[in-house]
Structure formats: C-alpha cells, structure tokens
Amino acid sequence: MIWLDTLIQGVLLGGLYALFALGLSLAFGVMRLVNIAHGDLIVLASFGGVALVLATGWSAYAAFLVVVPAMAALGYVLQRSVLNRTLGGDVLPPLLVTFGLSIIVQNGLLELFSADPRALGAEGLETASIRIGGGIAVGWLPLTVFATAALLTLGLELLFGRTRLGRAFRATSDDLVTAELMGIGHRHVYAVATALSLAIVAVAGIFLAMRTTVAPSDGPGYLLYAFETVIIGGMGSFRGTFGGGVILGVAQAVGFRLDPGWGILVGHLVCLAVLLVRPQGLFPRTRD
Amino acid sequence: MSTLLATSGLTASYGDFQALFGIDLSVEAGEVVAIIGANGAGKSTFLKAVCGLLPVAPRQVVLDGEAVGGLPAHRIAARGVAMVPEGRRLFPSLTVEENLLVGAHLGRPGPFAIDRVLDLFPPLAEKRRAFPRTLSGGEQQMAAIARALMANPRLLICDELSLGLAPVIVRSLYAILAEVAREGLSAIIVEQDVSLAQTMSSTLYCFQEGRVSLHGPSSSLTRAQISRAYFGV
User: Fold this and answer.
1) Do the Cβ atoms of B146 and B100 come closer than 8 Å?
2) B157-168, pLDDT tens digit by residue?
3) A 160-199 → B contacts, CB under 8 A
4) Which of A83, B71, B149, B159 shows the greatest Cβ crowding within 10 Å of its Cβ?
C-alpha cells in the first residue's frame, strides 16, 4: 500500500514537472531555442505572485489573472527585442544570452526580495486532501496541478494540430524561409510562441509557490527538472513531455521513499538511463 | 493593361559576389512571363530578390505602383505574391491538406479554396491526409503549386517546375497552369525547357550572367536569337 501511495504522489508531482517542461518543449519545438533562463523565469513568476499578494492583499488566485498575462507580455517583448536577434545562426548565442538573462533574473530577485524563501498561501487548498481508502490521501493542490498540466497538454496539442496558429508554428519549425514566402512572419510567430511558453511558466511558478517555498537562487534546479522531463519524454510532442514529467515524478518519489536523500538522485539516474538506452526519448513524436 | 510588377535596375549580391547587374523586367496584369537562362544566369536570385529574400533597394521592385524592394518576404506575400519554390519545399511534418492551408495563411480572398485546388489536382484529393514524402515527385509539385494558389495571388512565381519530373507530368502541370492563367492570373515562370517556356508565356526574358540578354514577345523570338542570348555566342 505504501508503494501505491508513492506511485500516486509521484504521478501527481509529475504534473508539476510537466508544467515546468511544457514551455521549454514548446520553445524548442518551434524555434530550436534552448532557454537557460527557463527555471529562473518560473521563479520570477512565483515572486511576481508573491509581490502581487503583498502589494494588494488580494488572494493568491488573483496571481493567475495578473501574472500569467504579464509573463506572456514579457515573453513577447523579450523574444521580439532580444531573443530573435540570437536565432538563425550558431547554437551558441541563444545559450549565452539566456544564460545572461538567468543571472540577471536571479540577482534582480535577490536585490528586490532578499534571499529569504517565500510562498503563496492557497487558502487551505495546500493542506486539503481527499481520502481514497486504504489509508491513502490525495492532496487537492497536487491534484489541481496535475489536472492543469493535463489540460494544458491537451490544449497545446489541439492548438498545434488543429489551428491556423499551430500550423504556422509547425511550418516555421519545418522551414522558416518557405513559411515566410507563405506570409508567415517568423519574428511575430516566435514572439507568440515565447509568450505562450512564459504564460505556462507563470502557471507553473504560481503553483510552485503554493506547493513549497521559493528562493531567488532556485531557478537552475527547476531548469534541470524541466530538461530531464523533456529528455525522458522526447522532443517535439507535448504528450511525451507530460509522460516524461510523470516518469520523473515517480522516479523521485520512489527515491525519496527508499531514502530521503535519494529522491533527486534517482530522478537524475532515470534521465541518464533514458539518454543511454533511448536518446530520442520514450515518447518521440509519432508523425514526422 | 496595367503593369503589375516592374523591376528597374535591380541589383543583388550574396556578400561580395554580385549576382544581378541591373535587371529591368515588367509583368503586365494577366500576363505570363517566362525567364530562361543557363545555370548561374541569375534566374533564382532574381526571384529571391522579388520575393523579399534578398536585400534590394525599395524602388528596384515596384508592385502595382508601390515600392516593395527589400520588404520582408511575408510582407511581399501579403501583397499577393506567391511562390512555388525550386525543389518544392513542402513542409515535411504537415499533411498535404495542412500544407495547402498554410498557403492560405493570409486569408486573401479569391477564387481558390481547398475544394477548388483539389479539383484542379485530383491526385491530391486522394492524398490529402498523407505526408509529402510519401508522394511522388509529380504529386509533390502539384501540392506546391496548389499551396501557392491557395494564397489567391496576384502574381504567381514558379521556379523550375520541371526539375526532376518526367516530361509527360511536366506537360500536364503546365496545362493546368495555362488553364489558371486564362482566368487572368499573372505569372513568372522560370523554365529550363526553352520551347515550353516559349509556348507558355507571352513575353520571354533570357538572362545571362546577371543581365537580360534578350527579351521580347515569346512568339516572335527565333531559335537563333534565343540560343545566341542563352549561350552568349
């Protein structure tokens, strides 16, 4: 029974990791952009929520209405003004520029908020749970996070598979020059992709701060989980990213159950094992 | 007739290498213009410059009275210029139908919608859910033409449609294009097959080493004139 509990908690934790990774997967899929600042942007969104609650006294849920659009706008501007200039040639400039961005975000947050960990109160959702029998309880917050991740995964698949914007994303990813000839302005399309990516990052960041405490220097750790999720799941499919998150979550939960010091390590080991055995990921895109 | 596209003194370079040395070319509304020339004569460079893929001065490319030279390619596409690129360049991860829909990305109004282009190219109708790499070369070229038509262009540009295709397929593709052109679509075609270029077009341009070496009404140019302009002998 204890292992069933571990499995359930791991799957639910995987929902959070999927939220971390969906934005990364999207940016890589559309633009081949590897965003080193991804984890720091998650933390930035957490602190955005904290600052909003401190300044206005509103509920933490208001952060979804304010921080998500704000991060999307930041994403659009960031891509249009900075990141677009780094793409199209060598792989190094986007890595260096987003690495720089990561340092700026970390130090900016440190300056503004100090090194103290912060959290968002979720009005009881963080401690509420449902008993599902056999002595196992499932927390409402992890369940909400998992459901959100599943819905966003489905939403992104529909967006990419069924809509004009999704076709523009895929066409640009396939062949930028030909997409331009079809009237698709890739600078705008890239900026929309980053806006979408950072909107998902904002959702992840707010849920993260509801679940645990967040400090300005935590970003690189979350970037690592996001990377591992994408590596396990395989590039180019959101379903795969979601599956990768679940596997990473379960691996960490099993590790923690074996020994409280092993959780993160087991996650890394599973990622390395996937890289060794199936470097293309467990769920690579089916149609291509 | 009004002039749809006019280039004047069009020059273009790849870095230090100058590929076009002042091309003057015009396409009247409803006219099909053919460009012929040996490899490296500058035909593809000319098309790239017109489509916005190479930096050129604004007045060097005038579309319907508006200086469009050097605008980004998607802005020129928005003004009704559609390209069938050399080598087809279909989007490999999109189905045939999705490729066609991307052609209609800008939503320009006009006679061509998905049903109409599938009527023009019946083999595509059967393969609308297939991926481009599973299509034959001729079918891929049909998809590329259909995709460009989906944009409801004012000017259709076809770069080397016949490349790598059997003559019988090339003739059927051009027969469909001729049918479309009769409805008043303007087009520029770049073609290796000189006699095909001559029969398809009303005006013929021959390029040689980045310059226009001959131009005139397609029907009145003689074989001798053309081969002199083509080879420069």
Assistant:
1) yes
2) 999 999 889 999
3) 164, 167-168, 170-171, 173-175, 177-186
4) B149
